[in-house]
């Protein structure tokens, strides 16, 4: 994606206030995970939609990967006062930052907005012997070390959290469940199709094309309701009292001014109201979960506490490589 969201344009949109030369510098959108994954798709969808709505010219999206996303978080924190940099984030970064005990906690950044929610999906290759989640659960309980799961997130991320919670719900010990972790959706899809894993946890929207093409079968989704376009029940419909929903949002570095933060939030507020963004949500199978400003700050504080307690309870921090 090419570069530059002029803040001069943003100022015109928000009331025509005077700008300094520095405000013509481009704004960059950092993705702390590999290309092709959920964060990357979300960030590029934000950038394209800003362009399509005329709210921005071009937005520079770039990937800075490493250490379960915390390399990008460290970069964001060290860019204190830089209102030209924002970062794609979500439940996955909250979990990985806590699980890996990141040197810069996520609470140091400046919250902007939560954009969307997405349930997880339990998927198998089309030729899998498991036709329903009940059949998979029975086999998994019978030989927990014999079935291998795949996840596209780091330990503490949404796929990993969902896997461990599902294991716990069907009566398995989360710390004894074997799984393979892959960087990004492309690697995980290859592992599923080549039978290196027996099943996988992934965002329900991530493999919609492979599902539609008949390469993958969804056994269940983890949200409160079925996902439009995917013929699969919820875990509750299958008799399991569990809901797991992923979410994604945006943050800025610490140290930006109150006005700079207000300008960025106002831009996202405008984006959220456009028909182009509603179409992007629908086309990607995402649920609108928009929350901005102080409401998102409070949500993020609560999520840090909730996820931290979950990781401690399930012993997931013990699975983090040293």
Structure notes:
The chain has 322 residues and is α/β, with parallel strands linked by helices. The chain has 2 domains: 7-115 and 248-319, Bordetella uptake gene, domain 1 (D-Maltodextrin-Binding Protein, domain 2), CATH 3.40.190; 118-221, D-Maltodextrin-Binding Protein, domain 2 (3-Layer(aba) Sandwich), CATH 3.40.190.10. It is 39% helix and 19% strand. Strands 1, 2, 3, 4, 5, 6, 7, 8, 9 and 10 form a 10-stranded mixed β-sheet that branches. β1 (28-31), α2 (38-53) and β2 form a beta-alpha-beta unit. α4 (91-99) crosses α11 (293-314). The longest helix has 22 residues, at 293-314. The two termini are 35 Å apart.
Blueprint (SSEs and pairs):
Layout: H1 7-13, E1 28-31, H2 38-53, E2 60-63, H3 70-78, E3 85-90, H4 91-99, E4 110-125, H5 133-142, E5 149-151, H6 158-169, E6 179-181, H7 184-193, E7 199-203, H8 208-212, E8 216-221, E9 245-252, H9 258-272, H10 275-284, E10 287-292, H11 293-314
Parallel strand pairs: 1-2, 1-3, 5-6, 5-7
Antiparallel strand pairs: 3-9, 4-7, 4-8, 4-9, 4-10
Helix pairs in contact: 4-11
